[in-house]
Design a protein that fits this description.
The protein is of the alpha+beta class. The chain has 2 domains: 116 residues, Roll (Diaminopimelate Epimerase, Chain A, domain 1), CATH 3.10.310; 122 residues, Diaminopimelate Epimerase, Chain A, domain 1, CATH 3.10.310. 20% of the residues lie in helices and 41% in strands.
Length: 263
């Protein structure tokens, strides 16, 4: 009996073993949530994507090893890369995904995959109990997004040196904690890291959904609608950002590193 094929793709990187890995399954029909959650736990990546074709669109759902999430950028980029690379969609076609966050699209342009995602709102929150102690750093500003807490630190060095107490981070009522600062170099406008132990992701290598908040945040600070970002995880990744009102366009690369079959 044939198994279910899948691919593992590194997103927001040009090179294998960089960026953020995602497992991607193109299913012949929908499966129940329990099965998808068990598969995601077995894949043990930050996110596993499950697609089902519906005429010229695809239903798309994302699962961490522990929960289903409302929005995932890197696994969406990986899904689009898989559809084009496998020939399911021609390379010039727009990939259209029906998700918990509405219609998301991806297209190839200027040698990059561009995702069209919803911009995240930001609300200042001066005090989050336990946050500074959990991070081991004192924020110079804190904001809430629909999913996460965004923390600004003084500089890139402080972001890179961060060694948070993940058990204490997991106790904070939020999907994850985004930590950011202005870049010290010319290769990016700002840098970030993302910690989400509460949903089974100690540190996410490159977080597309976090940049739905980081893009508007730094765009407003710098007076720009086009930005370059670098996530400072051990794997690292680069994102290009274009702001367009209530939408954020994220650009990046992807590379397939593994093909397999779930038996």
């Amino acid at each position: 009996m044939p198994g279910q094929p899948f691919v593992q793709i590194d997103a927001f990187t040009r090179e294998s073993f960089g960026g953020n890995p995602a497992a991607v399954f193109l299913l012949p029909s929908g499966r129940d949530e329990g099965w998808m959650q068990r598969v995601a736990r077995e894949m043990n990546q930050a996110d596993t994507a499950f697609l089902v074709r519906r005429d010229d669109e695809f239903d798309l759902r994302w699962f961490t090893p522990t929960v289903e999430v409302e929005l995932c950028g890197h696994a969406t980029l990986a899904s689009a890369h898989m559809l084009w690379e496998s020939g399911v969609l021609p390379s010039g076609a727009t990939a259209r995904f029906r998700t918990r966050s509405g219609l998301l699209t991806a297209r190839l342009h200027d040698d990059r995959i561009w995702l069209d995602l919803p911009a995240a709102s930001l609300r200042a929150e001066p005090a989050v109990p336990g946050l500074a102690g959990a991070l081991g750093a004192e924020p110079i500003g804190t904001w809430r997004t629909p999913f996460d807490i965004l923390v600004e630190l003084p500089d890139q060095r402080a972001v890179g040196a961060l060694r948070p107490d993940l058990s204490r981070v997991a106790a904070i009522e939020t999907r994850g904690v985004i930590v950011t600062a202005r870049s010290d170099g010319a290769e990016a406008d700002f840098v970030s890291r993302f910690f989400a132990p509460r949903i089974g992701i100690p540190e996410d290598p490159v977080t597309g959904s976090a940049h739905c908040a980081l893009g508007p945040f730094w765009g407003g600070r710098l007076g720009r609608t086009e930005l370059t970002a670098r996530q400072l995880s051990p794997r690292g990744g680069t994102l290009w950002i274009r702001l367009d009102g209530e939408r954020v366009h994220l650009g990046g690369h992807a590379v397939t590193v593994l093909r397999g079959e779930l038996v």
